[in-house]
Amino acid sequence: MSALSAEIQQALPTARAWPFEEARKLVERFAKKPPEKGYVLFETGYGPSGLPHIGTFGEVARTSMVRHAFEAISDIPTRLFCFSDDMDGLRKVPDNIPNKEMVTQHLGKSLTTIPDPFGTHESFGHHNNARLRGFLDSFGFQYEFQSATDWYKSGRFDATLLKVLQHYDEIMAVMLPTLGDERQSTYSPFLPVSPKTGRVLQVPLISRDRVSGRGRHDAGGSGYRRSLQAAMEAGLGNALGRARRRLRNVGQGPDPFGPAWPEDRTHLGRQPAGRVQL
Question: 185-216 pLDDT, tens per residue?
Fold first, then answer.
């Protein structure tokens, strides 16, 4: 708990500022059973297809405000992950970068495989990740940077990807009603990377085996058919949207609340002020 004056400490239980309202919800949640890993994990997300901006600042600032409010009224340690979705495919070339023609040739590829148009880093994704860290450091944020590319290629998500495959039907039942007719026909919670073109594919899962943990995608005319397990072993997989957030949740630590999805981490990114997404 933060070292605050007795007067301030006495006012915190009834503080109406939204960071404290959200922090008190977390205190109530952990009153009976603290997180098994010994800390509460807060997280923000960043898509490094462009340079960091005021929205990026807002995500980290909101999360940090709730984190600090929680630390002021709780003795449970905290951590903040700033997670970069740098395995995403580049959908559009930003207007504010050099060498746009070169980058255009790599549309659809993972950001950490696209050459850096600035010529300073290993890839476009690495460049923007560095800009993100410099941006956050300039404001004095306390965080731990995490790269999706590192997590996928190191195998840290493999077990959880297989769990997503095992719960495929339940996930699709939640997701499909939120999509239009055209997207429903191609949606999959997995985004395989083509070993031929290096592009991230939005293609359906045409077969799966819950027992063996194998699945197969089909990219139509490209002739791309690859088992999910082989793709994971080669670091050629990704997850999409809500499935991605849940993938992180399970992959980042034990779940003290249930067998499906943990609730010992807080997401404030991309949410209106005062809301917590779990």
Answer: 888 888 888 878 888 888 888 777 776 666 67
